[in-house]
Amino acid sequence: xxxxxxxxxxxxxGQRGSEQAAGGARQGGPADGGAARPADGGLxxxxxxxxxxxxxxxxxxxxxxxxxxxxxxxxxxxxEGGQPAWTRPGSGSPPGWTxxxxxxxxxxxxxxxxxxxxxxxxxxxxxxxxxxxxxxxPPTAGGRVLGAELALVLLLAFAPGLLGLLxxxxxxxxxxxxxxxxxxxxxxxxxxxxxxxxxVLVLGYMLVRSGEGYAAIGLGxxxxxxxxxxxxxxxxxxxxxxVLSIVFSHLGSRDVDFLPRALPLxxxxxxxxxxxxxxxxxxxxxxxxxxxxxxxxxxxPTAVILLLPTGLWAALHLYQGVGPAVTILCLGxxxxxxxxRTRRLWPLVVAHAAFDLTQLVLILLTRS
Length: 368
Hints:
Blueprint: E1 19-21, E2 51-53, E3 65-68, E4 118-119, E5 130-131, H1 143-171, H2 182-210, H3 224-247, H4 265-297, H5 302-315, H6 322-342, H7 346-366
Antiparallel strand pairs: 1-3, 2-3, 4-5
Helix pairs in contact: 1-2, 1-4, 2-4, 3-6, 3-7, 4-5, 4-6, 4-7, 5-6
């Protein structure tokens, strides 16, 4: 003879004949010690009602009550607080759970233009945003390869100029003789331009081959922040150089004739444009963009990152005298610090080219 099944029927909301004690049926059988559960017609539930007294319940109604599950189309009860304490079957949450609220809003993205970024305030900061600089891209090669490439680029960029300074110092002449013949002047201009662009072409090839691209050295897309920073740096460069030239005037300077008056005017104008744009692009790309990026990827100290390339660049200007070289060193440190904090090279390229072009235009106007 099969054993008697005293387990309560499963609770299936919305299905007729599935009832559950409102006081909570204990596992192992109904509260009345195993009495058979009648269907919905034997509970004493009035027609259209949702519940009634369990058989054997005291007349005062103090015992548990049987509750009939509501049909699927019936509205679900709401608690006093207004938030539903349980959800419909199939929503993924069992009865007694509350649905999670709306997802939290994403954190505010860091503002990265034009000076790196402003980190959202953290507890204990007093609600102030903290500055965060943009780091260089991760290196794509080992330290030895990066060091060899950097040494090659610096050799191509500075060896010709430093060799010329050495020859000038050992020749006994205070300054190099200017070329006032058109043919030799054109040849000298082409040769100087080639020497200036050679390291840029080499490092450009290495950046493309490694997959880093020109954005790795700060030559990303030129935007309105770069335009504003270019104008600010151009004006600030003139003010700084004017003040420093007065401060370091006692160190001495040499009068270098960049554009000899014996040459035709068309050549002097063309040469002035070539000098300004070549210096603005090549020197900033090599000294600030490439050298500082590689030194930082090699984990060099910040002082080395700022002073080594800028010091070599300032040494190339010793032919103008000690005073101008020190002035250019101070200006270069300002440029180096700007790039170290922002990693934006376009403003420095524009400011450098504009500074040199303005200086050469003044020479043309005053010595024509």
